[in-house]
Amino acid sequence: MKSRLLGGIAALLLAVVGAVLLVVYVQGADARAVKGLDPVNVLVVNDAIPAGTKAEDLGSRVQLKSMPQSAVAEGALHELAAQNGKVTAVNLAPGEQLIASRLVAPGELVPGTVPAPDGMTEVTFLLTPERILGGRLAAGDKVTVYTSFKTDEAAPAGTSIPAGSKQSTGLLFHDVLVIAVQQAPPATQKAGSTSADPAVAMPNGSAFVTVARSDADASKMVYSAEFGTLWLAKQTDTTKKSNPPVTTFGGLY
């Protein structure tokens, strides 16, 4: 009787120890998974931060967060000590990593511009209002670039343009960052108009639009502007991106 009692107690103790070990193992599973991916501590934005905010004022608006090395953006910061005297170059959204290139010297923060990403080329084009959303594009926007060509000779065989076509429009790039837009202020309101008029004021003339792109892509845009025409379409957060074929008169309908 006594031996059976001792056996029962031993079995109960083993069950309790096994349950405790199982709970500890499960609780540590996430930590072990992250540890196996070489976790790195980086600063992540807590609240929306406007451009021009001093680095010294970012302390309570960012926090250190551990994440896998593969998820860490190039240039992500893990401390602010070396950033004193700088300001944010662009608006920062909650959840994004704080990247070194987003902090610049105050003198580099030109009103109405955003910095070009590292490694990118800045190039400027003179475009008429209808090619830039009626002049409503602004620094920080991302656009889709279309190009149109009209030639005296028909397109040769072997290209993406149907053989024989003399006019064509095609999608050149998605996600082109607008660095700056320089244009004359909108035309003054006509006599008798009020500020409540729903119409958007018309811009005065063409505008200089500066974009950031690789040198190879910039070369294609320069060629298109030199020998054809460019058309910019503003993207939104929900814009669906596809790869449509080149449009010609024969394929339009």
* Global Rg: 29 Å
Q: Please indicate the percent range of residues in DSSP E strands (runs of 2 or more).
A: 25-35%
Count of individual helical segments: 4
**Helix residue percentage:** 10-25%
* Number of extended strands: 9
Task: State the low-pLDDT regions, or none.
Answer: 191-196
Termini separation: 94 Å
What kind of assembly state do the chains in view correspond to? Answer: single chain
Give the topology string: H per helix, E per strand: HHEEEEEEEEHEH
The largest sheet has its strands arranged as: 5-8-7-6-9
Shape: elongated
Protein structure class: alpha+beta
Mean pLDDT: 82
Structure description:
With 253 residues, this protein is α+β, with helices and mostly antiparallel strands. The protein folds into 2 domains: 35-108, Antifreeze-like/N-acetylneuraminic acid synthase C-terminal domain (Type Iii Antifreeze Protein Isoform Hplc 12, Alpha-Beta Complex); 121-188 and 199-252, no CATH class. The chain is 20% helix and 27% strand. The strands form 3 sheets. It has a 5-stranded antiparallel sheet, with helices on one face. Strands 1-2 form a two-stranded antiparallel sheet.
